[in-house]
């Protein structure tokens, strides 16, 4: 890869933390109340999106007799119990440690609001300290969430990094679209349960963070 990468930006859910299963479980619990079941196609359209957009997607797809506000209230009540138990994704701690050892600045850019972010990171405060910046969906200056590029551009600005020199790790179509809209390079962390076409816009596709080769991107 000929890109000059100087900074790295990570999505949170499904990239650094194994939290997507919590969102899936919460939605399945809600759907089950009405005799419905969440399918992977619908899930793939929800990941990485603003909560109200994701709510409308699942309400329409599963024909749930709920308003957006009712769905979000039920979902968030469940998620608040799940989030403090979030564990790191396989390879995430090792990859960020490698970046730190090479003095490569790295940040987190997530659509999650700061309250949810805090719950998810309760067990990971020492790890959190090594990131140069954290941008949440309700951080100052964020006007639109993924697939808009705002959170990634804000993370780059916080590190004084040109967007063209940033490499983003993402797992969702909306996140990949947002990173590309920001003018950044993207590594997609794939999941075999989804149609592989959702990752097509990424510059690199890997199924495990341990598969990422720093040397290929000039980060050694």
In short:
This protein is of the alpha/beta class and 220 residues long. The chain has nine helices and six strands; from the N terminus they run E-H-H-H-H-H-E-H-H-E-H-E-H-E-E.
Characterise this structure:
- This protein is of the alpha/beta class and about 220 residues long.
- The protein folds into two domains: about 5-20 and about 85-215, HAD superfamily/HAD-like (Rossmann fold); about 20-85, DNA polymerase, domain 1 (Orthogonal Bundle).
- Helix content is about 40%, strand content about 10%.
- The chain has helices at about 20-30, 40-45, 50-60, 70-80, 90-100, 115-120, 125-130, 150-160, 175-180, and strands spanning about 5-10, 105-110, 135, 165-170, 185-190, 205.
- Helix 9 links the parallel strand 4 (about 165-170) and strand 5 (about 185-190).
Write the layout of secondary structure elements.
Blueprint lengths: L6 E4 L9 H13 L7 H7 L4 H12 L5 H15 L9 H10 L4 E4 L4 H7 L4 H4 L4 E3 L14 H9 L7 E5 L2 H9 L3 E5 L14 E3 L14
Parallel strand pairs: 1-2, 1-4, 2-3, 4-5, 5-6
């Amino acid at each position: 890869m000929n890109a000059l990468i100087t900074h790295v930006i990570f999505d949170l859910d499904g990239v650094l933390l194994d939290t997507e299963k919590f969102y899936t479980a919460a939605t399945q619990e809600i759907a089950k109340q009405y005799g419905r079941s969440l399918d992977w196609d619908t899930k793939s359209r929800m990941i990485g999106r603003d909560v109200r957009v994701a709510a409308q997607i699942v309400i329409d797809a599963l024909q749930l007799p709920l308003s957006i506000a009712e769905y979000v209230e039920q979902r968030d009540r469940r998620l608040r119990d799940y989030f403090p138990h979030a564990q790191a994704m396989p390879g995430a701690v090792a990859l960020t440690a490698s970046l730190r050892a090479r003095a490569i600045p790295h940040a987190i850019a997530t659509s999650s609001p700061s309250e949810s972010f805090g719950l998810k990171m309760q067990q990971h405060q020492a790890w959190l300290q090594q990131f140069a910046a954290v941008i949440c969906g309700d951080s100052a200056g964020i006007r639109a969430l993924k697939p808009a590029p705002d959170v990634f551009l804000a993370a780059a600005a916080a590190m004084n990094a040109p967007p063209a020199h940033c490499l983003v790790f993402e797992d969702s179509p909306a996140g990949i679209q947002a990173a590309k809209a920001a003018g950044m390079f993207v590594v997609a962390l794939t999941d075999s349960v989804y149609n592989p076409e959702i990752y097509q816009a990424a510059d690199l596709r890997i199924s495990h963070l341990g598969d990422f080769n720093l040397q290929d991107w000039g980060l050694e």
